[in-house]
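Our preliminary data section would be incomplete without showing what the modeling component actually yields. Below, a chain of 539 amino acids is followed by its predicted structure, encoded as tokens that our downstream tools consume directly.
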Amino acid sequence: MRINIIAPSASKETVVFPVSPVTGESVTGESVTGEYITGVSTASGLLRSSKTSRRFAGNAGWEIAASGNAATGNAVTGNARYFQLWNIRGWLSLGWLILGCTWTPAMAEENWPQFRGPNSRGVAAEGSADAAATSSKYADRWSASENIAWSIEVAGRGWSSPVVWGERIYLTTVVSGQEPEPAKKGLYFGGERIKPPESVHQWKVMCLDLKTGERVWEKQVHEGVPQSSIHIKSTFASETPVTDGKHLYCCFGSLGIFCLDMDGNTKWKFDLEPLPTRLGWGAAASPVLHEGRLYYCNDNEKASSLLCLDAASGKELWKVAREEKSNWSTPYVWKHAQRTEIVTAGSGMVRSYDLDGNVLWTLKGMSSITIATPYEAQGLLIVSSGYVGDQQRPIYAIKPGATGDISLPEGETSSAYVAWSQPKAGPYNPTTLVHHGRLYVLYDRGLFACYDAATGREIYSQQRLPNGRAFTTSPWAIGDKIFCLNEDGVTYVIQEGDEFKVLHTNTLEEDDMGMATPALISGKQLLRTAKRLYCIGKP
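Predicted structure:
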């Protein structure tokens, strides 16, 4: 939500300045390509941006508002992507507001409520402008015994990411009644298992103490024989839960969506039909939560759909059919100045829906398998699809406000609503990462590349990670460093910037396999492997 400090007046005009570069955002009717706030003079009422200076003084008072999540007293908290200055006729001055309103990144530091964090971007403490300060809170070197605050073995199998609210961690897993077939690492053919397993499985949700790793509670939500199959590398708990701090929503594809309160009591269940997926690979897309509604994209070989549930009751509000086959991409709720959209990436096309399930715009030109999650960065929607067997493996950067079919004509890389595209740069399993103006791409086979996030310009081409192979986990950023975990449990630490530089690697236990994306919270990295959950942090 947007947080405002209200002055005693009602007449308002809005001026919007992004904090970080935004391409094509409108500010009182003028284009501000790349314009962003650089400072405010409390003495003169002068707001300085990267392109100009604007004075907001005289008889008018000014109210400052930040996009974010919560407010405590006079401290605005949250991850502000832009500031608004509202022209209020009254006694309140800009200088008083700047002095009286302190924006802190507290919200982003306290909770990690969904896959890839509060904004689906995989960045620690996004609200912090001090990369060195953020880096100093987190360990960038670790082993199975060094800088490990605690670790626990997790029964069963699951590639869901941990989510965190306050001092509690929430995690899903599924325990088989017999020893599952061991997974083979890397990319290969032949991993499909068309026939569902015949043993009894237990679907579980766990709650752990963030400081100690001790189990607070464990809830078994279902027991039975699976009605669908999965790939040898996948699990029946690959979907990451989502929480609003009041309830926890856990999706197990082909079984159901379960709503629990924060003490593990089941509030409602929504049954999901076991529908066939491509080559029996199983489901993996996670649900997303927005203003009392839960959205779940279920792309499969029989009846693909986007589902909207009332988060409080589990009642189906609407469901729209999708002309798609199997995909594994989590949808993204994109809030911008014009509207709020639900963006779904698919192999057939990218579709954006309004909050009632009506299609707003579409974009064709994806690869034949789509896994990566869309997200917004610097005012642009980033979408990628990069099946390794295809010639077309695009990354798109899309401007807000699109309508209709915005597919690019053959040979074109931009248009009115496509800021830029890279036709052959998309990764297969990992989602891309935008951090400090650069878009980083981690490829499954151990390559790494960097582009300018605003323009798509290549900063450096694909570089080989030494002895790197088998990357499924999405990369993440902390301060001035980028982290990439491979399936062998080895994390490559890369210096952010315009030059490719691997700083060092961190290795866990020999039997650790890494495919889950970590949670980053208050100086701790919660990293899940096939056998364990690690809390990585400085002593």
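Confidence is low (pLDDT under 50) at residues 1-108. The CA atoms of residues 17 and 83 lie 6 Å apart. Preliminary results of this kind motivate Aim 1 of the renewal.
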